[in-house]
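Late entry, evening session. Most of the bench is empty. Finally got around to the prediction I had been postponing all week. Sequence below, unchanged from the version circulated by S.P.
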Amino acid sequence: EISVVVSTHNRIKLLENCLNSLSNQTCDKEKYEIIVADDNSNDGTQQWVKTLHTECNLRYLRLDVNSSCGIARNYGVKHSKGEIIGFIDDDATVKRDWIEKIVKFYKERPDIAACGNISRNIFCKFNRNYECLEYIIESKENSVPNNTNVIIGELDISSFMVGNNSSVRKDIFLRLGGFDESLRTCEDIDFGHKVIRNGYKICSNPEMKATHYLDINPIRICIKYYKYGLEEVIIMKRYYKNNIVIHFSLIGKIVLQFK
């Protein structure tokens, strides 16, 4: 029924936590598969995954060249078997009923093309191998009331349609061409705009609960958000070229990420 695509690159310790959370789901293990889409890691990820023993249907796919998260995700979807695609990154973990809640949602809402939720963020101090040494800051769970499904507009895409906690119907994903492979980051936000611009609906799903473990290293944070900023400008020009009000609204959302 559902394929969960986990994009990863050189973060075995984080990937281990992610896969543990996906392997311990309440959903019948025969109804879902886990696809590790490896963006050409060189830290032994391939060898490590092959040593795993799990009752789940776990598949490993590796890109020949280090490309981008979007390309890795597209590759995973291309080789998936499920009618629904769940996206989670290696630096996130999910609640035990995450898959069950996604499947249930799409059965109850045939009018919805995609859904996602705001992850709970925990900023961590990592060592070079991405082992968490210390938890520094923890954010609130999410700003949407529990059990409240809200149709998402374009201004909210950057909050709800993100790759570390989202899902989409596979046929619609492929129909829209998947993630834009020319973007190094923010391809998930760009895809959300494509969904809405093509007349489909995105909905929040508060029951999709995930925790995102973020690196608090100031240098890596600056590099990360610098790259985000470059791609956000491309997306704003692409979709809001003549709408100055939308421009300032989105800029405000970007600035708030630094607070």
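Two things to note before I forget:
Residues 252-259 have pLDDT under 50 and may be disordered.
The first helix runs from residue 12 to 23.
Will write this up properly tomorrow.
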